[in-house]
Amino acid sequence: MSGKVLEVSDLRAGYGDVEILRSIHLHVSDGEIVAIFGSNGSGKSTFLKVVAGLLRPWGGSVRYMDEHIEELSPEERVRRGIALAAEGRKLFLGMSVEENLLLGSWIKRDKVRENLERVYEYFPQLREKRKTLAGDLSGGQQQMLSIGRALMSEPRLLMIDELSLGLAPAVVDRLAQIILSIREKEGISILVVEQEVSLALEISDRAYVFDLGTIVDEGSSEELLRRDSIRRTYLSLM
Ligand SMILES: Nc1ncnc2c1ncn2[C@@H]1O[C@H](COP(=O)(O)OP(=O)(O)OP(=O)(O)O)[C@@H](O)[C@H]1O
Ligand SMILES: [Mg+2]
Predict the structure, then answer these.
(1) Which of 27, 38, 121, 172 is the most exposed, having the fewest neighbouring CB atoms within 10 Å of its CB?
(2) What angle do CA 67, 3, 158 make, to 5 degrees?
(3) Ligand positioned closest to the Cα atom of 20
(4) What's the CATH number of domain 1-75+194-238, 1.10.260.40, 3.40.50.300, 3.40.50.11270, 3.40.50.11690?
């Protein structure tokens, strides 16, 4: 492999005849955590949908593990190791925590117990609440469940849309630590959309800034944290 788990070139996509993404070039290397941030409506979720196969690109290429995947169904992409913890969490609120997790394991039926155990190790609160309805969980626990469900398919590329949205700071800190330990233990790549720019840059190795469907800035997170334009615009510093 080229060392790149995901490599997107000149990607265009939209809804109906409205173009949203214009010429996106983005890659995620093996074992990397990459963050995407940028203003509301700039196309971050749309981008993740295209990678997950939920929206067909108009043009450009999407390569995963050195293979073109533009024509693959969402199911086939999950099978190959692409998992999305979607914005809004998309849980089955009337089902229990464990039932939601089991729904994430349809491609790994022979390893359900093992994967449940693995998810419960990352998220002990989910083990305690395994019989609780997803709808009765706190926001933080729902986010854990959404990420846990994505992990049940043993992804090689885990995508998370809006990690911290609506969550209390202490919960966000805990989630950030768990994300880092998932990368460490699983050795997987993580692509995270995160509005809270300081958090996005803290947990990632590199980041891309989206604006109006294009990438307007990118670099190592360390470098972006120091960059004056980023500090002024996104961190309200200086
Ligand atoms: N299903 C849809 N049909 C039509 N337009 C859509 C659809 N989903 C999103 N859009 C539009 O596409 C643009 C990009 O939306 P997208 O959700 O990708 O942005 P985002 O960067 O994730 O924003 P946010 O920070 O609010 O989550 C917006 O103008 C939005 O209104
Ligand atoms: Mg979004």
Answers:
(1) 121
(2) 75
(3) 1
(4) 3.40.50.300
